Known about the structure:
Chain A is α+β, with helices and mostly antiparallel strands.
Amino acid sequence: MKLVVAIIRPERLDAVREALESVLDEAGSYRLTVQKVEGHGRQRGQTEYFRGTPVQSKLTTKVQVTIGLNDRYVEPAITAIIRAARTEGGGAVGDGKIFVLPLEECVRIRTGERGGSAI
Amino acid sequence: MKLVVAIIRPERLDAVREALESVLDEAGSYRLTVQKVEGHGRQRGQTEYFRGTPVQSKLTTKVQVTIGLNDRYVEPAITAIIRAARTEGGGAVGDGKIFVLPLEECVRIRTGERGGSAI
Amino acid sequence: MKLVVAIIRPERLDAVREALESVLDEAGSYRLTVQKVEGHGRQRGQTEYFRGTPVQSKLTTKVQVTIGLNDRYVEPAITAIIRAARTEGGGAVGDGKIFVLPLEECVRIRTGERGGSAI
Amino acid sequence: MMMTLELTSWLSPLLANGDGAGNTAWMLTSSALVLLMVPGLALFYGGMVRQKNVLTTMMHSFVAMAVIGVQWILVGYAIAFGADHFGLIGWSSKYLGLVGISPTTEYHHAIPELVFVMFQGKFAIITPALISGAVAERIKFSSYVLFIILWSTLIYDPLAHWVWAEGGWLFKLGVLDFAGGTVVHVSAGVSAVALILLLGRRRDYPDGAILPNNLVLTLTGAGLLWFGWFGFNAGSAVAVTGEPIAGPTAGLAFTTTQTAAAAAALVWILLEWLHRKKPTSLGIASGIVAGLVAVTPAAGYVIPVWAMVIGAVASVLCYGAVQMKAKLKYDDSLDAFGVHGVGGAWGALATGIFCSVGATGLIGGSGAQFLRQLLGVSVAAGFAFAGTLVIGLAIKLTIGLRATEQQERDGLDITIHGEHGYHLEGV
Amino acid sequence: MMMTLELTSWLSPLLANGDGAGNTAWMLTSSALVLLMVPGLALFYGGMVRQKNVLTTMMHSFVAMAVIGVQWILVGYAIAFGADHFGLIGWSSKYLGLVGISPTTEYHHAIPELVFVMFQGKFAIITPALISGAVAERIKFSSYVLFIILWSTLIYDPLAHWVWAEGGWLFKLGVLDFAGGTVVHVSAGVSAVALILLLGRRRDYPDGAILPNNLVLTLTGAGLLWFGWFGFNAGSAVAVTGEPIAGPTAGLAFTTTQTAAAAAALVWILLEWLHRKKPTSLGIASGIVAGLVAVTPAAGYVIPVWAMVIGAVASVLCYGAVQMKAKLKYDDSLDAFGVHGVGGAWGALATGIFCSVGATGLIGGSGAQFLRQLLGVSVAAGFAFAGTLVIGLAIKLTIGLRATEQQERDGLDITIHGEHGYHLEGV
Amino acid sequence: MMMTLELTSWLSPLLANGDGAGNTAWMLTSSALVLLMVPGLALFYGGMVRQKNVLTTMMHSFVAMAVIGVQWILVGYAIAFGADHFGLIGWSSKYLGLVGISPTTEYHHAIPELVFVMFQGKFAIITPALISGAVAERIKFSSYVLFIILWSTLIYDPLAHWVWAEGGWLFKLGVLDFAGGTVVHVSAGVSAVALILLLGRRRDYPDGAILPNNLVLTLTGAGLLWFGWFGFNAGSAVAVTGEPIAGPTAGLAFTTTQTAAAAAALVWILLEWLHRKKPTSLGIASGIVAGLVAVTPAAGYVIPVWAMVIGAVASVLCYGAVQMKAKLKYDDSLDAFGVHGVGGAWGALATGIFCSVGATGLIGGSGAQFLRQLLGVSVAAGFAFAGTLVIGLAIKLTIGLRATEQQERDGLDITIHGEHGYHLEGV
Lengths: 119, 119, 119, 427, 427, 427
Ligand SMILES: Nc1ncnc2c1ncn2[C@@H]1O[C@H](COP(=O)(O)OP(=O)(O)O)[C@@H](O)[C@H]1O
Ligand SMILES: Nc1ncnc2c1ncn2[C@@H]1O[C@H](COP(=O)(O)OP(=O)(O)O)[C@@H](O)[C@H]1O
Ligand SMILES: Nc1ncnc2c1ncn2[C@@H]1O[C@H](COP(=O)(O)OP(=O)(O)O)[C@@H](O)[C@H]1O
């Protein structure tokens, strides 16, 4: 099992969700967790104006999608995320990153099930 | 060492905290980190109304509890979380999930201590 | 590759960012993700007052910094974080913690690159 | 399409000198100002509760504008200001739905009676809304609505008759209540206690960390309350005959209102500074309200320096009362009793101490007025307390008073109203 | 440095009895109150949109204060209230920039004309801002600004002339519109529909979960609107000659305004309760506005109980209209048509049904007024709809009406205005 | 309990025609409106700072209502409007605590003197609060409170005497300041600069990304300020004798206020559009305030078109001044100098250029008034600057002016006041 953590542009969340749905949605196994994060990468933050003075925050708003997966779904999920999260026309700085972490155990609280079937 | 990540119902946070306290609180080792996340699982989001029209958000608010643990505490912690986070009467969709990740290193910033004693 | 997760005091974020920049900023590899979390540790929450009655929240606001790194950068990053996040005069309760997780894969969404060069 | 109204009655003796339009202008303004106090109260209270209950708390005030707004027109005015029966109750069927009041009907030869109906109606609206602060975060919305309809009809309207109608028995005994210290604040504050006894504490009180969701709202509400209170108090000059309404008494009431609020706000944060080393924004807002409450019954009867003293002492008493709550561990969520009950009672008594304009108080060497005031406070408190217990109990035994455990835990906004106050996340 | 003005004209016959200052006091107050409705509207609308569009939505109202504030002084007043030409348009070049109006010039021998200019100017400001609710979250800011300048000049100003100027053709036909049911609400509501046809739906409508960012703002806005509306309606007594402005008609209009708003708010949440089991805060705010809209044309012509009926029925009709929207899937973002179009039309017709003060309606046994009202509504609706289509199309074909796909997705606040509404994160 | 006051003095010659109630109605309303500006300012400023300082910033305004509210009654009015001494200072011990002013004492035979005391008192409250914008996010709360008490007593009250009291030396020289361009805005803006010199910059300025926590508040505040300013300016007609207060001059001042604000708001966002391609909500709010500030000294002396020009130019000058700040890198947090100092000075000079009602300016061919205005601005600026330096230095050397490094970093709300503005997280 793996924990796939993708940091993406907020506006891509819906697209990523749909893409993941299409590759994962077998036996209701499509589940994920989303949270708002602030990213610091090569992309500069948005410029805002305060009475004519530009103010640039160092951080840009990103969304982090976390999804626990059985091994065979990892590659399809990565491909799906890349497809949906990449800016049209070959990608742009700020498109984000995917991290894959080893997952030792997974427990469904409702039933107490463990392992791959609990994911 | 493991990093236990539990995604639970917000209203269960206090119960989970107490349950963890009871199994972990030896030598002050009861520490955890909490954050608000949005979950997408089998559970549907809450229905709100806008002038009579139901609006259902796809995401439901969840709380993610992260806790770094020495190996021997992992099972007691899992059991405690399940006990406290599961809906009365056999659990319900939306009760959440626990992920266990391998933790290679842990550092206490205050002292620079490392490993199991720093957790 | 490792995923370094540091939970620090919010007011130390700028210092930590600068410290990381100084050890990491080679070939533009300085990237990180920040989020607000609530910590429960030995430190008590701030006291607020409601018409003269003190109210103490159990949780204290912390900032979690997540950074994916190639192995050789892990130690310098840990040292830098400790240096910048520790309270002057030998550290204080609430200074925070660093977790190091194994990272199996890393994908740059923009280009599809994988592994160490995508970090 | 010009409209020509019968103007004969309008040009009555007093008004022949032309104060009619000026008086009416001020009373229209005052009525609008008092209406604005209701959203002001909604903000004041709404900011203090937890995020999950901000809307239901604000709705407690807004729904009073809706239901008491209607009740007052239908029967409230008839009960409070209809023809007197034995000093105990008013009733004139021509006031039912206001059908017997033509636009040109005058009140005291000074303003159109409809304007007086409106002015008084705003008082009727805000009074039950004040109570809501005590039961915030746990009362069931439908029960609250039922409660305020009954309370307004059975407690407020008769009490207003006793104190303000010319035939009312307390009025005839000479109890002074310029703008509602007993009728409004004592009655609301004491009723709050009665309701709390029936409702019990919030599940997280006093152990949980209950923190206000948005003190900016509370400050804003306090600002609107201060602003609106000028109408509440200076508009109450309408009851003084023989001079223009927008005249000396209104000017005096305006001044004492301002003075008491300022002094009370200052004293409250000084107390906090002494007690906790933290002068708070909630404290300045609370002091403002405490001062305004306390000066309400006295506004047109005392001179500005005494108003300052009334305000200052009000903060001491109210701050003390609130500390008692923390000791006694009863759960008056937003201190409706601590501020309105205590402040209102103090103000009513203080009127008997400091009055010197149009009446003589203790400082003028006469104790009679003070005793009358004591009577007024006692009667209002006793009546409101007993009446609220009865009404509250009746509701508790029928449809219930309290939200369910789960509603309280998850928040009344989403569970009862199907809404969240804020959606501020970008996700 | 004392100023001595020529007072002869001021002391005109009617005013000799001294109502001058009283009238002027009330009209100054009313004008200020109507101005406050614009920030009130900004809050009402701003709370309902998503966080990413809160500022641009509020700016739709604020920028109307800026541009129509200037336009009205320059040409608007001259078009609406200048010398009549064939009943169709006003124009007096001395009104250009108000240069021909001295401070002592009087209006109707009752108040300084400048005060009347101001009072009317606030109506001109708020009317186009009402439309903005329909096109929120997708219209381009510059196009919106251009639109309201043209709309105000070409639609609102002439319509105001037809209905309110003494030479206007609808005025002469006896169409009644006390404070703007047709001129303000029907015209805005119907224009909203025309603009929606040109603009299309928001990309996330109706499938996305579009939730209001801050209902506290919406409630606060509704409170300010209610407060300000007393100026809107009771100030409109200025048009009634032969009695003091701050007199019987103002008192009546004040009362009907209050009554209708209360009844409508109550009925709206009762409907929600029946329909969805959830009485909402957005519902109470919407009911308030629906009631205020509906009573606007009737305020000085009906007695309070009928105003209550007008308000109650308004909520039924507006609630129904909003449900239709969900069925028909057109995207009137914040229900400018559902509330202002429907409520305004109902109110204008209801005036013909219930009027009994200064005119006789259906309930008085005469159908003539109802037919006049029907004419007024039809003309206003037809003119505003057609005119808006033309103006909107012209803008669409030149600078375009709609924000880009990306601006709409990322939010108009940051992309067009370079700002975020809130920075509430500690990070 | 009817109150009968001595009415003889009230029915003075001028008032015999009945304007008394109307005048008083308008002045009561105006006083209430000016009070509301203080919460308005709290919102305007509070929205612009970072979340961690929102409460302390709002408290800067609220605490002025408390302390200056008390100070004005105790000594302020006596200093500003007591019997003149050498044109330099006022003092009447009967004004101490207002004990010598009975409710029936009249001011200018037009209104009760208490109402005048109240009206002027609100000006005394808001002026020091304006300064707080310059020192936001770093001044120590207790030092701020001490500062405004001293500043009000030693700078504001004498200055008000010089310009507005009939014996004041600038008044006698014919310096015009209708509603406070020099007394209020120049003095506040210039004092801001003096304080900044003593305080230094915020630790994150200019390098950190300091972003406003809640521009909705700022817009709301601007709306309330605009609304309240009608009282500020049109209420200042009280100083014009020989006509009703709610009369031509009030009408004129109301009109110029509206006109200047609208024009300034429009010009400000046009400038932003040209400069940055982003018309901002903060810009429209800033423009509104700049226009209102600039028209304040001129309001009753100029015709509406010139008011429009005054407003438009004010935005150009203030926008420019704010850009200079970014260049010079001094830290006037919320541009108290850039908006109030610059706008107020421009307005005072513009009065000398454009005045034509009751005085003749440059456009009327006379330079004398302009020179008088120049004198007024210079004296007010010099006096306020020097005085603030002295007071500020005294505080700096005793209890200190600035919050600690840690308080500033963690936010003044939690460290000084023990509160957070918002608790909006569900966790
Ligand atoms: N090594 C990393 N560690 C933590 N977060 C990262 C890392 N690389 C990228 N991110 C996150 O992804 C976001 C997008 O990064 P981006 O600038 O697009 O990276 P790249 O230039 O590698 O495509 C960043 O704002 C940051 O939140
Ligand atoms: N595989 C997963 N990956 C990421 N998050 C998950 C996963 N499974 C569950 N969650 C999180 O847990 C929450 C509760 O899930 P739930 O619907 O109760 O799952 P289940 O049906 O498996 O019990 C979800 O809303 C989601 O936030
Ligand atoms: N074992 C742990 N698991 C999860 N979070 C932790 C753990 N230890 C510390 N933290 C996080 O770090 C924050 C600071 O902890 P602190 O009280 O300084 O720990 P210590 O006393 O070990 O230095 C805590 O509030 C919590 O958010």
